[in-house]
Amino acid sequence: MSAESPILSQELREYINYIGYSESDLLKKNREETKKFGALSIMQIGAAQGALLSILCKLSRFKNCLEIGVFTGYSSLCIGTSIPNKSKLTCIDNNEEYINIASRYWEEAKIQHKIRLVADNAIDALDGLIEAGNEKFDFAFIDADKANYVLYYEKVMQIMEQGGVIVIDNTLWKGKVFDKNIADRSTESIRKINALIKHDKRVEHSLLTIYDGMTICYVR
From CA 211, how far away is CA 125, in angstroms rounded? Predict the structure, then answer.
């Protein structure tokens, strides 16, 4: 959580950054390199979120994982280094610059054999997985463009195993979701997916206030 959380106080951020998680040297290196993108570096998950993803993957020993939105590879490092050696992580992103950075870190972490990269836009990539119909995922992490969150969620649900877990980032969206004066497309999209999950009988869920909000869904 080296980047500032938009919904937590400075004092709480400082305390969490001091005592709330451990971050490997490789993850720190990735975070430092990502800072070169300036304001865009906020797209990277917080370190505390990465630690949570890592623990979740170690506990559950997922076999077939899916990530929608790779950016520079921080979250895929957390997932890829924490799933068993024979498990797989399918990563979807269509930004060549980001993919090149992430790929370097996968190689440095020696997890490239676990990674299947789909260099395409997320909707087409998910449609391809659905149409193929030959695999199911037991874990999915959604952290791509917010305007399409509901569409991503519904498509991911079609390829999830019963008992699988879906984690969705930015579900408090800088606190905008509870500000009635804000109605931009991304904010409205986050509100819609939060409402959808709240009433979705296909899942059990918990919205965590960690960093920019993270929702964990258990597929019934």
Answer: 28
- Six-digit token string for 2: 């080296």
**pTM for the complete prediction?**
0.96
| Residue whose pair of structure tokens reads 């990465």 in the numeric block | 50
CA–CA gap between residue 93 and residue 198 (Å, rounded)? 28
**DSSP E strand stretches across the chain:** 64-68, 88-92, 115-118, 137-142, 160-169, 203-208, 214-219
Looking at the domain assignment, is residue 214 inside a domain? yes
Query: What does the pLDDT look like over 73-129, one tens digit per residue?
Result: 999 999 999 999 999 999 999 999 999 999 999 999 999 999 999 999 999 999 999
Which residues form the domain of 115?
Answer: 10-219
> Is 1 part of any domain?
no
